[in-house]
Amino acid sequence: MTDFFVGVAVLLLITVAAGLIRVARGPSPADRMVAAQLFGTTGVGILLLLSEGMDEPALRDVALVFALLAVVVSVAFVKRGWVRMGLDEESEADRDSTAGGGPR
């Protein structure tokens, strides 16, 4: 059974290599972010498989930390993109006041 877990972990590692191609080429920042999310999810999967295959319960803790970091990174990316597009609350209020669409 150990060989099965390690084999699946290697297969997941190959998908990370495919994601590297998307990060290098990927036409938009959103494509790159999806590839980075792939890295996080696949990394968690690999760590969980290796934890079972090698009987190392400490790797489960590391997988949990990676999962939490992946969420933080995606929220930071969305927040940065939201502000960069000018869709934050302050700029929306400024747009409404200059367009004559103030509070009613």
Low-confidence stretches: none
The Cα radius of gyration reads: 20 Å
Specify the biggest β-sheet: none
Instruction: Give the topology string: H per helix, E per strand.
Output: HHHH
> Helix count, per DSSP?
4
Structural class: mainly alpha
Separation of the first and last Cα atoms: 67 Å
Give the domain tally: 1
Indicate the proportion of strand residues. under 5%
Roughly what percent helix? over 70%
Report mean pLDDT, rounded to a whole number: 80
Q: Care to count the β-strands?
A: 0
Tell the overall outline. Answer: flat
Structural summary, described in words:
The structure is a single chain. With 104 residues, the protein is mainly α. It has one domain (2-98). The chain is 84% helix and 0% strand. The protein has four helices and no strands. It has helices spanning 2-25, 29-54, 58-84, 89-98. Helix 1 (2-25) packs antiparallel against helix 2 and helix 2 (29-54) packs antiparallel against helix 3 (58-84). The longest helix has 27 residues, at 58-84. It is flat and about 50 Å long. The model has no long low-confidence stretch (mean pLDDT 80).
